[in-house]
Structures are given as C-alpha cells and as structure tokens.
Write a structure and sequence with these properties.
Helix content: 25-40%
CATH topology: Alpha-Beta Plaits
Radius of gyration: 10 Å
Number of strands: 4
Strand order of the largest sheet: 2-3-1-4
CATH architecture: 2-Layer Sandwich
C-alpha cells in the first residue's frame, strides 16, 4: 500500500469534504484516511488503482486535483 496526499482545488465546506470522501470511497484498492477542505490522504493498492483514476474520481465530485 502506498500513501498519497492529494491537494484539491475548489473545496470550501463540509459538503465538499463529504462529496470527495464519497467518490474516493467507491474505488476498489483505495482506503480513505482523511479528507479536509483542500486536501485528502489516501492509501492505494498500486496494483488496483492509478493516481489518474483518483484524480478522475475527485473530478466526478466536482473538484480538481492539483500538482
């Protein structure tokens, strides 16, 4: 398992946090450790998920992962 810290643009409230947490939580191979306004920490199984797929899930929630 690898830990990733994601910087997320566009989040401003608790609803944003819940939306991101929900989308990331749907992914196989991902364990959500924490989500706060502007960031998330996840553990990933690199054989099951890619960082690009994580970014897509965040986009599906309405936000954007920034480098």
């Amino acid at each position: 398992m690898k830990i990733l810290d994601l910087k997320i643009e566009g989040m401003s409230c608790g609803h944003c946090v819940m939306a991101v947490k929900k989308e990331l939580g749907k992914l196989n191979g991902v364990t959500v450790e924490s989500v706060e306004v502007g960031k998330a920490r996840v553990q990933i199984d690199e054989t099951a998920i890619t960082p690009e797929r994580l970014a897509k899930a965040v986009e599906e929630a309405g936000y954007r992962v920034v480098a």
